[in-house]
Amino acid sequence: MAEARSSIDADEIARFSAIAEEWWDPNGKFAPLHRFNPVRLDFIRERALAHFGRDAAARAPFRGLKLLDIGCGGGLLSEPMTRLGFAVTGVDASERNVALARAHAERLGLVIDYRVATAEALLPEHAEAYDLILNMEVVEHVADAGPYLRDCAQLIAPGGLMIVATLNRTLKALALAKIGAEYVLRWLPPETHDWRKFLTPNEVRAHLADAPVDVEGPFGVVFSPLSGRWRRSADAAVNYMMVVMKAPRLAAS
Fold it and tell me: By C-alpha distance, which of 72, 75, 84, 76 is closest to 47?
C-alpha cells in the first residue's frame, strides 16, 4: 500500500514547536508576526466583508460563517476572527502550538475548535466545508506546496474564498526576509525560512490551475522603517497575499 501523502515538514514543525510558548509575547520570537497582524487582519476583514456582503458596522458581521485557520500557531488570527463572528477551526501540525492556542483562548472565554491536524487530514470529512480559509505564512513551510494548495482548495465551500499570504522568491526577499530579518536585524531565529521554498505569485497560480477556483493578486505588503509598521503596497517582491475564490454551487433546475 502506498504511503499516505503528508504536507508536514518535520524539521519545520520541530522548529516552531520549540518556541511555542512565545506565541503571545509581542516582544519575543514572534514579534514580527505581532507587528504584521494589523495589516493582514485589515485585509482579511475587508475582503470578507465585500465577498460575503456583510455589514461592516455589525459587531459580529460574519456570524453563521465557518472559518478554517491552517497553521494556526498560537491563535493570533483565530482569536480575532472568532470575535468577528466566525465559527473558527484552527489546525496546526504542532501539538505544542495547539495546546498553547487552546489554553490562551479558554482563558479569554473564546470558543475555538483547535485541532492537531493538517489540510489533507481534514479532506475526507470536511471537503467544501469552510466559507473562509486562512492560509497565512504557511505554504513556504510545507513539504510540497502544490499538493498542499490543491488540498486546501478542496476545503473551500462553494461561494467561499481562501486568502494565502507568503513570501516571494526574489533576490529582494532573500536580502530582506531571509538574510536581513534572520541574521542582520535578528527579527527571526536563524533558519526560520528556506528561501528556496518561497513561492512566486505565478507558482501559486500554477499550483491551483486545475482547481475550480479563480485567483486574484498578488497584493503586496511592505514594512516601513520610519513608521515601524506594515502597509499594503503595489510592491509584491517580498511579502504578498493572494485571494482564491470558489464559484457558488449552481442551483438545480
Answer: 84
Determine the Cα–Cα distance for residues 133 and 136; give it in Å rounded to an integer. 9
C-alpha grid cell, residue 134? 486562512
Tell the CATH topology of 10-246: Rossmann fold (3.40.50)
Q: Which amino acid is at 32?
A: P
Query: Diameter of the chain by CA atoms?
Result: 62
pTM attached to this predicted model: 0.89
Contact indicator for 90, 136 with CB cutoff of 8 Å = no
Gap between the Cα atoms of 25 and 219, Å rounded: 28
- Model confidence over 109-130: pLDDT tens digits? 999 999 999 999 999 999 999 9
Selection from 72, 92, 196 nearest residue 145 by Cα: 196
Please choose, from the candidates 49, 54, 95, 46, the residue with its C-alpha nearest in 3D space to the C-alpha of residue 72. Answer: 95
Identify whether 212 is preceded by a cis peptide bond (ω within 30 of 0). Answer: no
Calpha distance 231→121 (Å, rounded): 34
Residue 94 C-alpha cell reads as 504542532
Measure the CA–CA gap between 77 and 90, rounded to whole angstroms.
Answer: 9
